[in-house]
């Protein structure tokens, strides 16, 4: 029997800040976002699977989440 990694965290809503906090703290693994699909977390950043990269809403979501991760990592970089 093969031990296959499963989705670690399921987000029932797309909430970029909540997902970014999880990704930043979790660092590596897999997540599922309802309405968008499966993603990988690699070194604290959310990455779309190759099959999802053609979808504009997926690319926008990944970009938005990773922007929040950057803001959480560098709080002084936020310009009001």
Short description:
By secondary structure, this protein is an alpha+beta fold. The chain has helices at residues 16-26, 56-73; strands at residues 9-11, 29-33, 37-42, 45-48. The chain has one domain: so0334 like fold (2-Layer Sandwich), CATH 3.30.1910.
Structural descriptors:
alpha+beta, so0334 like fold, globular
Strand content: 15-25%
Number of helices: 2
Low-confidence runs of at least 5 consecutive residues:
none
Shape: globular
> Which second-level CATH architecture applies?
2-Layer Sandwich
Helical content (DSSP H or I, runs of 4+): 25-40%
Which class best fits the helix and strand makeup?
Answer: alpha+beta
Number of domains: 1
Strand order of the largest sheet: 1-2-3-4
Helix-strand pattern: EHEEEH
- In total, how many beta strands? 4
Radius of gyration: 13 Å
CATH homologous superfamily placement: so0334 like domain
Question: What is the CA–CA distance across the termini?
Answer: 54 Å
